[in-house]
Amino acid sequence: MDLNGEHARSPAEEFAEAPSSGSQQLPAEVQGQEDTPVSTQEAMQSAEAGQDDQSLSQARGDTGREETSLKARMRTISRGQVLEWVAYGVVLVVAAVLRFWDLGARPLHHDESLHAYFSLQLMNQLANWEHCFAFGDCYHYDPLLHGPFQFHAMALVYKLAQLVGVPDQGVNTTTVRLLAATLGTVLVGLPYLLRRSLGRVAAWLATVLLAVSPSLVYYSRFAREDIYMACFTLLLVVGLVRYVQERKLGWLLVGVLGLGLSYATKEATFLTLAVVGSYGLGVVVWEIGSRWELRERVKGEPRWLPKSWAPLLLLAYVLIGGGMALLLFRWLHNLSLYITAHQQTSDAFVAALKDRTVQVIPWLGIALGLVVLVILLREMFMGETTTEAAEQEQRRGLARWVDEKRQPVLATLVRMPWTHWFFALLLFWVIFLVLFTVLFTNIRGGIGDGIWAGIYYWLEQQQVARGGQPWYYYLLLIPLYEQVGVVFGVVGIVRCLVRPTRLRLWLVYWCVGNLVLYSWAAEKMPWLAIHITLPLMLLAGLGLEPAVQVVLRWGQEGWRSWRERRKEREAVGAEEGERGREKWPERGRGKLVGAVGTVLVGVLLLVPTVHNMYEVTYVHAADAPHEMLIYVQTTTDVNTVMAKIDELDRRLYGGRHQLPIGLTDDATWPLIWYLRDYPNVCLEYPNGCPATAKNIPVIIAGGDSIANGFQQQYAGPNGDYLYHQYQMRSWWDQGYMPPPCIPSAKQQCGPPAPYVGVGPLLWLSYGDNPPPGAHFNPVLAAERIWAWWWQRQPIGENAGYYPMALLIRKGLGVTP
Questions:
Q1: Which of 28, 104, 158, 618 has its CA 20 to 30 A from that of 449?
Q2: Where are the transmembrane segments (predicted)?
Q3: Using only C-alpha atoms, what is the Rg of the chain?
Q4: What pLDDT digit, counting tens, does each position of 177-207 carry?
Q5: Model's pTM, two decimal places?
Q6: What is the Cα–Cα distance from 636 to 622, expressed in whole angstroms?
Q7: Is residue 530 a contact partner of residue 272, using CB atoms and an 8 Å limit?
Q8: How much is the average pLDDT of 2-11?
C-alpha cells in the first residue's frame, strides 16, 4: 500500500476527476489540470514518481546519455517531493505545538473527569484480566460515556506513561489529554493523502486551516471523544476515495479502520453513515443514468434536455429519498416519545433483542466462514486459469456494462473482489469484538450492547435534549470563531457547485448534511461543532486555492523571467535583455490583482481566527463566561481547593494521602478524579458515610447542598467547621436563547422551555436587556462582536457559575 500516491494511474482515474455527468465533459479544471500547485509545478509532480521509477528501471540498458537524463529528472522530482514534505512538516509541527503546549494546565472538565477516572479504573482492572473474565464485574460499554475506544486508548496511554516514568505514576491532566492531542495532530495531516484529488495547493491550505482552527485546536486539547471521531471520519473518507481511485485492498482497510474505530468511539457514527450512504447512493444513481442517452433519442435534439437520464434520475432520487428521510425522522421522533413514555417495556424489549442477537451472531459467523472456505477452496483447486476465466465471465455480465471512467464508483462496487469484502468485514469485526467485549472479558454483554445499546440510548436522549440549545446554535457559534473558514468555506461551496467533481460535491454534501443533522439532533454542544468545521475547512482550502495558484504562478514566472533576463544580459548585453521583461500578459493583470486581493482578504480573516484560537486555548481556557466555545467549564478554583487539601494532608499525615474527606453527591465530578490518590474519601456525604464521619476533617460540598443550608448546618455560629465558597464551574451567557413563548389567539405554547433569552439578534445588539420595542441593530451588533473578538468584552452577562464549598474543621491550622 503506497500512502504517498506515487504509482502508475489505474484505468479508473481519480475519484475527483471523474466527470459528474457521464455524457458531459467537465471543464479542464475539474479534470485535474487545476489541481497542481504552480509554485513548484515542475518540481512537485510526485504523483508520477512511480512511473519514473519504472522508466528508470527499463532504461538501465540504454545509453549513458538517456540514463543521465533520467537521473537528472529523478533528482528534480526528488527535490520537489522534499519541498512538499517540508511544507506539510512545518504545518504539522505548528499543529503539534499548538496542541501539546502546556496541555495539562486547564482543570479537567466534568466530562473529561469521567473519561479520565474510568480509564484509570480500566487500567487497574485489566491488570487482573482473569478476574474480569471470570466474574464480568469490570468496566463494560455504557453509551452514557460513549464508546469503549476512548477508555482502552487512554488506559494504554497511562500504562505507557508509567513505564517511561512520568510523574504521578503516569496519571495526570497531561496524560489524560495526550490521546486527544495526538489524534488532533494526525487529523491535520490527513489531507496530504487527498492532495491529488483536492489539488495540492487546496490540500495544503486545508491542512493549514485545520492546524489553526479555534474549535479543532481547543478540542484537540480536550479529553472527549469528538476529536477522535473527527479523525476517524476523515480517515474513512481518505480510505474510500483512494480505494475508488486505486482499487487496492490496503486503502479499503484504511477506510474500514476509520469506520470501525469511529463506531467504537461514538454513537454519532450513525449520522456519518447516513451522510456517506445517502451520498454514495446518489452517485450510483447518477452513474447509472449517465449510460442512458436522452437528448439524442428525442427528435430535434432540444438543447433544454440533458444529454443523459442522470439528472432526472438524481432528481427522482432526491425527491423520493428526501420524502423517506422525513418519514424516518418522524418515525424516530415518535419512537423516542414511546420509549420515554414506556421506559420499562422498552428496556425489556431491547434486553430481549440483545439476547436474540447474541444467539444469532455465532451462526452468522459460521455461515460467513463457510462462504470464505468455499472461495478459498475454489481458488486452490480450480487453478489460476479457471479463476481468470470466472473473472472474464463476471465481466460479461453487469461488470462489463460499467464504464470505468464515467462510472468509477459503480465499477468499484461491481468489480470488488470477494477477498476485499471478506477482509473488510473481518477487520471491522475484530475491532468491534476487541473493544466492545473489553478484551474478551464481557463477550455476551459486549456484543449485544455494542449493536443495540448505542442507538437505544441516543433515542432516549432525544427527549432529554441536553443543553436545550436552539436550532441556530451552530450558525451563531461557528462564525464567532472561524472567520476564514466560514467566508472561504462558502466560496468553496460555490466553486464546488460551479466546477463539480464527485469529491467536491461530497465535501459540500458532507458539510451541509452535518450542519442539518447536528442542528436537528436534540443535543447541541460546542464540541459537536467540529464535525461541521472539519469539512468546512476542506472547502475553505478549495475556496482559497484559485487565488493562491495565480499568485504562485505569478511569483514563479517572475522568478523565471528574472533568471532569463540575467542570462540574456550576460550573453548579449543589457539592451537585449530587456525583451524578457514582460512575462505576465497585460490581459492577465486584472486576474492577478483580483487574486492578490483575495489572498489579502484570506490573510486578514486569518488574523481574528488565530487570535480567537489563542484566546480560547491559552488565555480563557478555563474561563467559560468569556468563551462560547467552552461549555460549563471547571474553574481554576478546583486547583486552589486541592492545594488546601494537600497542605492539610502534609500537616496531619506527612503527605501520605491518608486524609479523610467527605464529598457530597453534587460535588462528585470532577472532584473524585482529583482525589483519586486519597483512599479515605467518603462519597455521598453525609448519608453514604459511617457515623464516625461526623468528625471528618474536610468536607467538599456542591451547589445543591449549599442551597439547602449546608453552611448553616456545619459552619454556623455553633458549627465545627470553617467555611469558604468557591466556583466549581462557570458558563457562557445564554441570552441568545429564544424568548419565552407568550400564548395568544394565534399562538399556542407547549411546556415552558428550560432556558430562555431575548433571541440571537437582540442579544447581539443589546445583550441580555434590550430596551422595550428594540429591534436588531447591525451596527451595535458589529460593535459588540468586535469588542468581544479583540478585548473579550462579554456580549451578555458573565456571572453564571455553579458554587462549591470547602469546609475544614477548626483548629487544624489550615483555613479553607
A1: 158
A2: 82-101, 176-194, 201-221, 227-244, 249-264, 270-288, 309-332, 360-377, 421-440, 471-498, 505-522, 528-552, 592-610
A3: 31
A4: 999 999 999 999 999 999 999 999 999 999 9
A5: 0.86
A6: 7
A7: no
A8: 36
